[in-house]
Every structure is written in C-alpha cells, then in structure tokens.
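dude i think i finally got it to work??
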Amino acid sequence: MGKKEFTKELSPEGEDRLRVKINVGKGKVTDLVVQYESKIREKWYTIVRYDCSHGFFHRDLFNPKGKEAKQSIAIQNLRDALTYAEQDIRDRWEWYKERFKKGMK
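look at this
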C-alpha cells in the first residue's frame, strides 16, 4: 500500500493551505483526508476536513471552539471523493474562512 501526503498553498500570503493524505492499494484510493487549514491570529486552525474515518465519506466543518458539524456525502468511489473534496476546498476556502472567523467574535 502506498501513502502520499502533501500540502498546497491556497493563498499568496501562505496563511491558507490544503493538506492531503492518501492511501492507495492496488491502484485504488483506500483512505483519504483532505483538510483546509488557515493561520488566523498567528495560530493554525483546521476549518474543513473531508475523510472516511467513520466508515463513510463525510465533511467535518469546525468552529473556533473545535466543535464540528458532520455531513455525510454520498460518493462511494474514493478517487471521485478525493477530487470532490479538493475542488470544494479550492472553490470555497475563502467562504469557509469567513464563516469560521465570524464564530470567533
């Protein structure tokens, strides 16, 4: 089984990043974590995470207190799930960040 892990910058300032962890076996994605992290007030926060840690593909939305809202996503093929998660975060990271920062007030 192969494991891949990498980080991609989302903002020019380097304060927003996409962290990806993928396990691959026999050419298929067997496990994944796609996470959006942002540095706010000199501290890194996890804001959105996609994974299949509870036996199903889902999205966790975090608030500043660390609480999360879990939403199941009906995608069975983990390669498709990986693409979906990466694209969602790339398209909406600024919205996710603003939502998170509103919870800090």
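The mean pLDDT is 94.
im so relieved honestly
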